[in-house]
Write a structure and sequence with these properties.
homodimer; 218 residues; alpha+beta; Arc Repressor Mutant, subunit A; six-stranded antiparallel beta sheet; two-stranded antiparallel sheet; 8 strands; 18% strand; DNA-binding
DNA sequence: ATTAATTTTTAGGCATACCAAAATTAATAA
DNA sequence: TTATTAATTTTGGTATGCCTAAAAATTAAT
C-alpha cells in the first residue's frame, strides 16, 4: 500500500474515534474518504495484514498501537502546518485545511519539529484541535458542544469540528472566533436552534452548526 | 495520469533540457527517474496525448508550451522551498533537496508566492539555480563549469549541478560555497584534476567534481 | 420471529504505473 | 556495406486502489 493511502486511512480512523474506544464503521469511513464502502472493506483487510488496525469482519475497526502512533504523527503534521500557515504565513483559518491535507504527507520529522519550535510548541491549532507532541502525547480536555449548552449560561468558544471554508467564514462574520465569549439567550423548542449573544449582538445558530462548535463553561 | 507523475516527468525533461533546444532521450529520463526505459516510452506516449510534450518515436522528446509552463511552475516551487528551508528554517544546503522533492507537489500558488515574498523574491536558490518568477520567467546567465576553467584565472563559485548531500558536504569542508573566490593554480595533465586555491588553502578537485561546480570569471 | 431496511462483503472490472524479456530500430564500427 | 552494439519499443504481466452490482450478513421494525 502506498504510504499516502495508509496515512489517509489511519488519520481518518483516528478522527472518527480519537480515544480509540469506539469502533469505526466502514460506512462512515467511506463517507469521510469520499470512496465506495466496498473499497473500504478491501483497504481495511490490507491494513489489518499490515498490523495497523484490528479489523473484524462485519463488526468494525480500531487502531493498533502502531497504527495509533502513525495516525498521531499525521495529525501532528497536519495541525502544526495549519498553525504555521495561520500564524507565520498569514493565511486565514478558513483556508488552511486543504493545504495542510497535502503538507501532512511530507515525511520529515526535523521539518515539523522546527516549525513547532518556531511556533513555541503550540498545544492547540487554529481550529482548537489539540496538537500531539513529538512523542504523540495529546492534551485532554472536557469541552462540550454548543448543541449541549444550557440556557442563560456563559461560554467561551474553544474550537470547531467542521473545517470547511463556508462554515468558518460564516463564523468569522458573526465574530464567533476561538476565545470569544458567548451567552446562550434561548433555545427554540421548535427546531433546537440556539440564540447566542456575542459582542452584544444576537446570532441564531442552527442545530447543525451548534454541533460543530466546541465550548467551555465560564 | 496522476498529477504527481506528470509533474515528475515534466520537471525531469526540463532539467535535462532547460533551454528546450535539445531533445531528451528515453534512456536518460529512465536513469533520472530510476525507472525502466519501457515505462518511459509508455509515459511519453501519454504525455504526448495530453499535449505536454512532443514525442517522436525513436527520436526524442521536447516540452510543448503548456508542458514548459507546468515544468517551470514545479521548478519554481522546488527552488522556492529549498530557499525557504535554508534561509528561514535553518536547514543546510545539503539537506533540502529531498524535502523539496516532496514539497514541490503541494499545489497552492498563494503559498509559494507568500514564501517568495517573505524571501524577497529571490532569483537564485541555495545551489545557485535560477528561480522562475510567478510568470515562469527565468534569469539567463553565462556561467561555465569549473571543468572548463583556465589556469591562473580567478573565478567565483556561482552554483552546483549535483545536489547530493555527500557532494555538498565535501564542498562545505573545503569552504567551496556559493560566492567563494577561487584561483585555478594548475591542471594535472595526467587526469585533468584541478588544483584550486580557496581561502589560501589548496584543494584538489577531481574532473567529475569539477563538472558539477558552476563558476563565473572575475 | 419474521420481514424489511441497512450495512458490509464478494465478485468481476478498470486505469495507472510500473516491470522483464523479446523484437525492432537506430547508431557505430569494421 | 554489413555486422555489431546500443537504444527504443512491443508484448505480456503485476500490484494498487478504486468502481458497480449482486449477495450475504447484520440491525431494526412489525
Amino acid at each position: 500500500m502506498r504510504t499516502e493511502t495508509v496515512e489517509n486511512y489511519l488519520k481518518t480512523i483516528y478522527n472518527l474515534s480519537s480515544d480509540n474506544t469506539l469502533v469505526v464503521s466502514n460506512q462512515k469511513l467511506a463517507d469521510k474518504l469520499s470512496i465506495n464502502p466496498a473499497s473500504v472493506t478491501e483497504a481495511l483487510r490490507k491494513l489489518h495484514e499490515l498490523k495497523y488496525v484490528i479489523y473484524e469482519k462485519s463488526y468494525g475497526t480500531r487502531l493498533t498501537t502502531t497504527g495509533s502512533k502513525l495516525a498521531l504523527s499525521i495529525v501532528r503534521r497536519h495541525r502544526i502546518w495549519e498553525t504555521y500557515l495561520v500564524k507565520e504565513l498569514g493565511f486565514g483559518w478558513d483556508e488552511v485545511h486543504e493545504i495542510a491535507e497535502e503538507l501532512e504527507h511530507v515525511k520529515n520529522d526535523k521539518l515539523i519539529n522546527k516549525l513547532a519550535e518556531i511556533l513555541g510548541n503550540p498545544v492547540y491549532d487554529p481550529h482548537g484541535d489539540p496538537i500531539p507532541d513529538a512523542k504523540g502525547k495529546i492534551q485532554k480536555s472536557n469541552f462540550i458542544k454548543l448543541s449541549e449548552a444550557r440556557i442563560k449560561n456563559n461560554y467561551k468558544i474553544m474550537g470547531v469540528t467542521d473545517h470547511s471554508t463556508a462554515f468558518l467564514k460564516y463564523l468569522d462574520k458573526h465574530h464567533l472566533v476561538i476565545g470569544a465569549s458567548v451567552n446562550v439567550k434561548s433555545i427554540e423548542e421548535f427546531d433546537n436552534s440556539i440564540v447566542l449573544v456575542c459582542q452584544k449582538k444576537e446570532v441564531n445558530i442552527s442545530p447543525k452548526a451548534a454541533d460543530c462548535i466546541i465550548i467551555e463553561g465560564l
